[in-house]
Every structure is written in C-alpha cells, then in structure tokens.
Amino acid sequence: MKNSLLLSLLFTISASAADAQVTYFADLMGKGFKQATIVQPSDYEGSVTCTLVRKTTPDKSTKAVLYVHGFNDYFFQEEMAERYIKEGFNFYAIDLRKYGRSWLSHQKINNIRDLSEYYADIDTALAVIKGEGNEKVLLSGHSLGGLTISLYASERAGKEKFDAVLLNSPMFALNIKSGLKKTALPLLLKRAEKHPETTFDLGINPLYGESLHITAHGEWSYSLGLKPFVAPPVNLGWIRAVYNAQERLTQGITINKPVLVLHSTKSIDEKKWSDVFFTGDAVLNVEEIARLSQNIVGQYSIQAVQGGMHDLILSKQPVRDEVYSTIFNWAKRTVK
Q: What is the pTM of this model?
C-alpha cells in the first residue's frame, strides 16, 4: 500500500533522534489502532519508509511489546495485540520497509541486500516506544523477523532499548533440501554478488496461506494484497542477505537479555490440502530451529509447542492459548 507524499511529510521523524516522536493517525485496522509513517534515509531503490502501529492499555502502563513480522507478511494480528494489552502491555508493531503499510510503488516488495537494513526501522521504533514513557520493552519477532531481531539484539549489546527477546518460529535456516543446498544454493549466492536484482521463486507452499485465511480454510481476515497466498519471487540479493545472517547465527551470537524460542513440534510437507496443515509448521524445519537456537550464547529457553502452526499465534484456539500462557508466564519473570 502506497502512503501519500503528504502523509509521509506530515509524519516524518529522524531515524537517529534520541527522543523520537511521531504523530499518529487512524490505522487501516480501526478499533483504536493508530499508525505513524516514518521516513528513513533513501537506499538503492530510492525513498524508504517504515510504519509503526500502536494500541495502548486503558490504564497507564510503562511496559510495552514491539512485534516484528515475518516474510510475506505485515501486522494484522488483532487478537495478539488485545492479549498483550490485557496483560498490561502497550502494544506496538512495525511494518518494516518494503512490506505491508510501508511498501512504496517504486520498490520491489521485500527487497533487501542485508538484514541490517531493518535495524534503522527497529532502532527508530524502540526510540519512539521509550520516548512515550515505556520503561520495559519486550522485543518479539516471527520467522524472518525472529532471525532479524536475534542478530539485532546481538549487535546492540550494551545499548539495548529492550529487556527480553521472544522468537516465534524464527527463520534460522532456509527450508530447502540438502541436495539443493550443496548444488544450487552456492551458484545462486555467487550470482547474487554481481546480480542481486535477479529474481528467484522460493516455491513456498501456497497451502500454508490457505490454512490461515478466512476465504480458504482458515479463520483469520487480512489483506491478501499485503500477504498473498503465493509469496512474490525474491531477489537473489534477498537470498544472500538471509543466508549470510543465518551463517552468522551458525557461528554463534551473544544476546545479553533473556530469550524465549518457541516452535512447533513438527514440520509438515503436504502437497494437497488436508487438516494436517493445522498441526505443524508448513514453512520451516523445526529441528533446525531447535538445533540452531543453541548457538545463542546467553540466557535462553527453547520450547516446542504441540500442534503449533508456523505462526504459533495463528494456530487453533487451544494451541494458541497455550502459546500465550507460555509467553506471559515467561514475561512476568523477564519484563517486570
């Protein structure tokens, strides 16, 4: 969705502002959600924005959560926001550059060349959250967002504006067959060095999207324009950026704040629709998540969720109730 130039100018802040402030206007979700467009420094495609979405608690609170979405995604999870608010958290979510509310018409959707490009968006969002009186902050990320905030948390050691890190099915490894990793992937990475704009279809199963959306087999209503069943092809620069980030994790990263990693107990690889899609992760290899999570140096906990889908908080009701119970019991100890 393209934001108008006028709104971009009206709701602009500097990414480096220590006391960052924004002006909010009504969000597309309605129901008390507000959004602010943040203009960031231009990159290799031109102008760049990110979008901060907020809904606060009825009674004053000094703790908050910042949610960072995954690939082919944007923030739409109203129930998640309301659960956090009920637990006394001011809720914030960011649509990263080139996603969702932040996509601009001259941009290739999802296009990046290094995951660190997202750090300015997260820095600014956290500065705003702190500037609005939140003393304790939980930094939460799903899938690619989970990988991103893991590296971000490591690189911000000693300068953290957050107090704990929650990872919901983090994308710690590309879910491609080992044969392709040994043959095709090295060729793609080599080509990406000189031709990062070359497109490549990841081949993500559209049935996962169908398992979520209310018009197909799921229970959730969101924009298929912003989160389609079939993710658009990525650039080779994106593949190289994600691969390099995952390689850094493989070598070990240190996170100074408590970390909770949640993932499903099993991965599924069905070619035709069945209710099996409601019982496991149809996007990532959960064994890889569990194994690579152990490369985090620090105070971390890993928990597998029986019957969890890829986005655990979009799982069936009993499962997501368990997920929320796990999150908030942990948060009571770490975000006081």
A: 0.93
